[in-house]
Write a structure and sequence with these properties.
Length: about 475
């Protein structure tokens, strides 16, 4: 130990110069370090500058102490004053740092402990007492060789800073629950280190060990603040990740909900479109909305049906009754068409039009399926009559042949069929008998092996002349 003390004493000026450079470097680093709060940065910067000034003052005091001449006298006097003055400033800066820790503590309490305010007042009093004692010559007077003479008044300037350090330590210990554990341990280590070094200095005259410990304090405060900054960045990063994960989960939930809503909306739109168009046509129109949808079919079967005497019947009915009656019967026809795979084309007043055999192949069973459908329509009419006060009869006409089908229009479009096959089917219905299925010869040829027919019955069709017709028995 004695060897180390002698080494420190022999190289004191070099050590003080080095420590001064360390403190000034740390002061610059504090200024350029971002993300430290302004009050915390100010406190640490003041600690660094005060420590640098203490080292400088001690160095020049040792240079000029014992040197003859008026200039040396005043330089020794001034730097001795600066030594003690900046020691009070360093303690004041530590107290400032501690108050900032309490102000923004982990439990959210923002009131500053009373002891911290007492320390500020003590240090102001210490500076005033120091100034009075130095000016009056009662504190460290110089002898004729310009060496300091220790007086009893020097204890005043020792006691007040030491009491201040003790009070800061007590406030830290009393309010330790407000501080993070690492802050608590560091501050007590720094303060007890200064106290211990100051006591040790009494037994080592000429070695400013207590003052030198302020440099340790300055270094530790800056390093710990950087450590706190790293932890804060880590917490912020972790919080950002958690928030991003939360937003991602919420976004996924929202996307799933919107996807389900869109799926439901698409299904509704698709069902609505299928109520208007055949499935292949609906798909084609959806994929190519600007395309002209048309197709020629070599052997389609068309059915027409209407109510016998509907004009006379509806004249004695209200509008609501008329619509209700038509809707009830048409709904039965639509349900059957969907069950049996018949394509409803449209209704025109009391007339109902449907098609089967919409295939590019001429050999299909459209005629057979359409006759089965027509027989079902007659059963539906009987069922309707049993439940309705209005008793109706229908005529049914069917014809097979080639036709063209397509979509007409851009708004309120309709799927329709054209051709002579359609016209003949309409004529067959108009020349038919109530509650009978009247078919053309082309239908008869395709379905004669599946049904019994009555005929041929010559029929005069407008625009076509005399043709053979058949009634399904």
């Amino acid at each position: 130990m004695q060897f180390l003390l002698d080494l420190f004493r022999n190289n004191l000026l070099d050590v003080l110069t080095f420590l001064t450079g360390v403190c000034l470097t740390l002061a610059v680093l504090v200024l350029v370090t971002s993300n430290i709060s302004r009050s915390r940065k100010t406190a640490i910067f003041l600690v660094e500058i005060s420590s640098a000034m203490i080292m400088t003052s001690i160095r020049f005091t040792h240079i000029y102490e014992g040197v003859p001449g008026t200039f040396a006298y005043w330089m020794a006097w001034i730097f001795k004053f600066f030594d003690m003055f900046f020691t009070s400033c360093a303690i004041f800066s530590i107290n400032f740092y501690v108050k900032d820790l309490f102000k923004y503590s982990v439990d959210g309490v923002k009131n500053v402990p009373v002891l911290s305010r007492v320390v500020d007042e003590l240090l102001l009093a210490d500076v005033a007492v120091l100034l009075v004692l130095m000016l009056s010559g009662n504190l460290y007077p110089l002898d004729e060789t310009h060496h300091y003479i220790r007086t009893s008044w020097r204890y005043v300037t020792y006691v007040i800073p030491l009491i201040s350090i003790v009070l800061i330590s007590v406030s830290i210990f009393v309010y330790r629950r407000r501080l993070r554990k690492m802050n608590f341990v560091l501050l007590l280590y720094v303060l007890f280190g200064i106290l211990g070094a100051s006591v040790f200095q009494f037994f080592t005259p000429g070695l400013p060990i207590g003052s030198v410990t302020t440099v340790d304090m300055a270094i530790l405060l800056y390093v710990f603040e950087i450590f706190n900054l790293g932890r804060a960045v880590e917490r912020a990063h972790r919080l950002e990740i958690e928030m991003m994960a939360k937003y991602q989960r919420e976004l996924e939930i929202t996307v799933d909900e919107r996807t389900r809503d869109l799926k439901v909306a698409n299904e509704k739109a698709e069902r609505l479109l299928l109520n208007i168009l055949p499935e292949p046509v609906a798909k084609e129109l959806t994929e190519h909305p600007d395309k002209t949808i048309s197709q020629k079919y070599p052997n389609a079967t068309v059915l027409f049906t209407d109510i016998v005497g509907f004009t006379k019947m509806s004249s004695g009915m209200s509008a609501e009754e008329t619509v209700k009656m038509l809707n009830g019967m048409t709904s039965l026809f639509d349900e059957r068409a969907e069950r049996e795979g018949i394509e409803k084309i449209k209704t025109i007043g009391d007339a109902y039009m449907a098609v089967s055999g919409l295939s590019v192949k001429s050999g299909n069973d459209g005629a057979v399926r359409m006759i089965k459908f027509a027989q079902g329509l007659l059963e539906d009419v009987k069922k309707f009559n049993s439940l309705s006060p209005y008793k109706v009869q229908i005529r049914v006409g069917i014809n097979s042949g080639n036709l063209v089908a397509g979509v007409i229009g851009k708004t309120k479009f309709i799927y329709d069929v054209w051709g002579d096959t359609v016209n003949v089917a309409s004529r067959m219905e108009g020349s038919g008998e109530p509650m009978c299925i009247h078919v053309s010869e082309s239908v008869y040829v395709q379905a004669r092996d599946s049904f019994s027919f009555r005929g041929p019955v010559p029929v005069e069709l407008k625009g076509k002349g005399l043709m053979d017709g058949y009634f399904v028995e």
